[in-house]
Each structure stands twice: as C-alpha cells, then as structure tokens.
Write a structure and sequence with these properties.
Blueprint: E1 3-5, E2 9-13, H1 19-26, H2 32-35, H3 43-51, H4 57-60, E3 63-69, E4 74-84, E5 89-96, H5 106-121, E6 126-132, H6 136-144, E7 148-159, E8 162-172
Parallel strand pairs: 5-6
Antiparallel strand pairs: 1-2, 2-3, 3-4, 4-5, 6-8, 7-8
Helix pairs in contact: 1-3
Length: 174
C-alpha cells in the first residue's frame, strides 16, 4: 500500500472501505463539472473500480490516492491521469470534497506530495492540469505550487446551458 506523509495530511492507496466516500464524491452533481461526469455511478461500479485500484500506473495510466487528515478522516482525492511514459508527463487533479476542509493547506500539501512522488518515483518530466476559468481557488493552488498558465481553451466545456473557458497549466519538473 502506497502512503505519502505530509505536514497536515497523508495520501494513501484506495481501500475497499473507501466505497462510501468515493460513491458520495462521484455522485455529487455539484462537482461533476470538474470531472466531466454526465451520469451517476452505482455502488457496484465503484466497488469494481476499487477491486482494480491496485493495478500499476504503468498498466492503467492512472493513480488515484485518498487524502486523509491527521485524524484519518477521508477529505479528498488526488489523481495522476493520462500517464505518458514515453513523453514523461501526466495530468494531475485534486478535490477536497467538504468545503469546510478547503483553504487549510490540505490541497497544497497533497499536491506537493504527489508532485514529489511523480518526479522521484515515476521520472515524470512535466505535469499539467485543466482548470475552469472561474475556479479561482484551484488556479491559485496550482500557481502557488509552480504551475504556469500556458493556454486558455475558449468555450471548452458546456456547463448548465453555457460554455466556459478552461486554462491549461503546466509545471516542468526536471
């Protein structure tokens, strides 16, 4: 089991007992925009996903870790996705689910842990993320952790009857 220890939180591999937490997140319509989700996920589908969560990032091209606070409460998820071995890059995304846990340094701590892991253990050269133009907190989080805006995708996502722009941010690691 992968565990990365930070100052305020730790990241760990997904476990079967995370079913309820992940089911809640994946079925929260308020955050579907972040993951481009269109439909709810059943408990059965999430259970199957958790049964395969042990698979290697080199095989599935994704690594999802649970963010826990020092009290061992599940507070969010952080992902590496579209892992590209040849070009040494991956996308990165983070979600702190409960708004009361935001703006406390948990996201920054988790992001820094996963950046360090990607660089030292996966030999990733660059990370990128896609953030909606109106998600000021996420833009601030990633920029404060060394990501630079490299482009604006106009009318990129269709959300609630209108188009939204999305920034592409990138961080070169080594």
């Amino acid at each position: 089991m992968l565990t990365l220890q930070g100052e305020h939180i730790y990241l760990r591999s997904l476990e079967p007992e995370d079913l309820d937490f992940i089911h809640t997140i994946e079925n929260d319509e308020n955050i579907w925009e972040l993951s481009s989700t269109q439909t709810p996920y059943s408990r059965f589908v999430i259970k199957q996903y958790l049964e395969n969560a042990h698979k290697d990032i080199y095989e599935v091209k994704q690594l999802r870790l649970l963010i826990s606070n020092k009290n061992h409460d599940s507070i969010g998820l952080i992902d590496l996705f579209d892992f590209d071995i040849k070009n040494k890059r991956a996308g990165i995304g983070i979600l702190i689910h409960d708004k009361s846990n935001r703006q406390k340094g948990y996201g920054s701590d988790a992001l820094q842990l996963l950046i360090n892991y990607a660089e030292t253990h996966l030999d990733v050269h660059q990370l990128y993320c896609n953030i909606s133009e109106d998600n000021k907190n996420s833009l601030k989080l990633f920029e404060s952790n060394g990501f630079i805006q490299i482009g604006l995708k106009k009318d990129w996502n269709y959300v609630n009857g209108s188009f939204k722009n999305e920034y592409l941010l990138q961080r070169i690691l080594n």
